[in-house]
Amino acid sequence: xxxxxxxxxxxxxxxxxVNLAEEAKLxxxxxxxxxxxxxxxxxxxxxxxxxxxxxxTAVAPLERMKILLQVQNPHNIKxxxxxxxxxxxxxxxGLRGLFKGNxxxxxxxxxxxxxxxxxxxxxxKGILYMYRQQTGNENAQLTPVLRLGAGATAGxxxxxxxYPMDMVRxxxxxxxxxxxxxxxxxxHALSTVLREEGPRALYRGWLPSVIGVxxxxxxxxxxxxxxxxxxxxxxxxGLVENNELTVITRLSCGAIAxxxxxxIAYPLDVIRRRMQMVGWKSASSxxxxxxxxxxxxxxxxxxxxxxKTVRHEGFGALYKGLVPNSVKVVPSIAIAxxxxxxxxxxxxxxxxxxx
Length: 355
What we know:
Layout: H1 2-30, H2 38-58, H3 60-71, H4 82-98, H5 102-135, H6 144-174, H7 186-197, H8 206-234, E1 240-241, E2 244-245, H9 247-277, H10 283-288, H11 302-313, H12 322-347
Antiparallel strand pairs: 1-2
């Protein structure tokens, strides 16, 4: 009987040790470092920020020209085209005039780009996981439609997070040396808008922006990633070297992606800019330049802005500034994608956006 008690005690002790070992194992697994360590996340965000800053600065004069064409008063045309407009700015404002608003633009685009690229990676991983669970195929890859969804998600997150900066950047960009009222910088513009127009003014035009982001950013990522996959897998033009695409080829993929996305979403960008001017007392003078033949810049919402723009200026007004924007987008998107990948490669971050 005594020996049975000893065996029972030994068995209980062994069971306890095994249970403790299993609990310790589970505890270790529970606190195991995630796939994206803090340092890796920081590197990814840094790469996205650098990509945004470099690409946007390279095309800053065209960006300013696009916005000026979008918001100018149709009754007093000051800028008749891209080349004429750039020459006029150079003559009246000099080199600094071509890059006016770029500091604000970079202050917005750097965090926007960082959040956008990182959000796309995370959204892609989450969507791919759910897709594999749904299909039961552990080897399934993202389809173009799923990439579109991941890109749209990333665009909405990035746009919402940095929209007040975009709104202020638009106003800083369109003011000239002859404007009756001057914003002295980002902080001054933000405080002035808050004081004179209220906090809601910082998100004026947000809805068309978000709607425009869905096709724009979504198509950028979907077209770029799908083009790269197709070229690597099928190699239809013999452009693949050591299972990798050259920088020129990747730039071309980015240019095509940017052109497709911006052409579809451009009318919403025009409406967004015009809505951002609403409530600004000096807006009419800024967009007409000389302060004559001013017309009211009042819209009751996105639909009203569309209706008034088309009724008073025609359907073509929805594509004002498309030429400088197209010239800008081709290198900008291409440079952003390639710079992002190159910086991540330099930092030693694994490039697996769609796996």
